[in-house]
Amino acid sequence: MKYKKFVRLYSYSRVFKYYKATDGNKHKAMQLYYANVRIAQAFHPLLGAFEVILRNQLHYALARHFSDGSWIVNQKSGFMSAPSLVHIDKKSGKRKVNNYLLKEVENAERKIRDKGVAVTAGRVIAEQNLGFWNSLYEKHHYILLAGTPCTIFQSLPSGYGRKEVNETITKIRELRNRINHNEPICFVDKKRDFSYVRDMYQKIMDFLSWIDSTIPASLAEVDKVLGIIDKEEKKQLS
After folding, report:
1. How many angstroms from the chain centroid is the CA of residue 214?
2. pTM for the complete prediction?
3. 180-212 residue pLDDT tens
4. Which regions of the chain does DSSP assign to beta strands (E)?
5. Residue ranges covered by each domain of the chain
6. Around Cβ 148, how many Cβ atoms within 10 Å?
7. What's residue 214's pLDDT?
8. Residue 73's closest CA among 124, 26, 5, 11?
9. Which of 12, 144, 169, 206 is most buried (most C-beta within 10 Å)?
10. Backbone phi, psi, residue 96, to 5°
11. How does DSSP classify residue 92?
12. Residue range 86-105: mean pLDDT, rounded
């Protein structure tokens, strides 16, 4: 495809990032655009596994903590509505309520009812996005849950705790969002660079190994990320 048509299809503002990153080489710009797509595509199975595994382990841990398999529904009037989630904003003097988890559960219940099916804990859990589970590692929720979210890990690195886990999940969420919005992931400081995706791949694998050291190997059949990064990087250097 000619560059002019490529730009018309994908928009000047989007393609220009690739054009600039490849020092004005139109062919390399299109090549890098497709490389970005292929690498993003390769991440999907790992990101899917990451989200499902994290969600399930947190559900199991919290079900044990509350001795309640339906904790996500029943805790709407429990820790999700705790008085400590209410504070007065120092600047505005207004009352602020951190009811993110509560709202997400209520929104999920509404969606389920709109489908004409019964609201169950399993369905509510399935409706939650990664932001919901990430929020359990925010300090205020983590304290209310007595540190339960970190009990899902078999082996955290020395010196790692809630803060580091929270930061890692946040970074992985950012990668997922960039991929879902077709944003560049093969850039560092607006320059062509594959170190970010290599680093994020390692963060995902490390995180999963903290939960269970056998998980990374179990994903070998669908894990093609590093191979595709290597292949695309060589194309850019040729």
Report:
1. 21
2. 0.91
3. 999 999 988 878 899 999 999 999 999 999 999
4. 86-88, 95-97, 187-188, 191-192
5. 3-237
6. 16
7. 97
8. 124
9. 169
10. -115, 140
11. T
12. 86
Residues in the chain, total: 238
> Which residues are paired to 88 by β-bridges?
95
Could you report the per-residue pLDDT of 34-65, keeping only the tens digit for each?
999 999 999 999 999 999 999 999 999 999 99
Question: Which of 42, 22, 56, 52 is CA-nearest to residue 226?
Answer: 42
Task: Give 131's contacts (C-beta < 8 A, 6+ positions apart).
Answer: 104, 173
Query: Which residue do the tokens 């054009």 mark?
Result: 19
Token digits of residue 187: 């850039």
Query: How far is the C-alpha of 213 from the C-alpha of 135, rounded, in Å?
Result: 24
Contacts of 214 (CB under 8 A, 6+ apart): none
Please state, in angstroms and rounded to a whole number, the distance separating the CA atoms of residues 151 and 142. Answer: 11
Report the chain's terminal Cα–Cα distance, integer Å: 20
Tokens 């590093």 identify what position?
226
Q: Give the whole-angstrom CA distance, residue 205 versus residue 202.
A: 5
Could you tell me the two tokens for 81?
């509505």
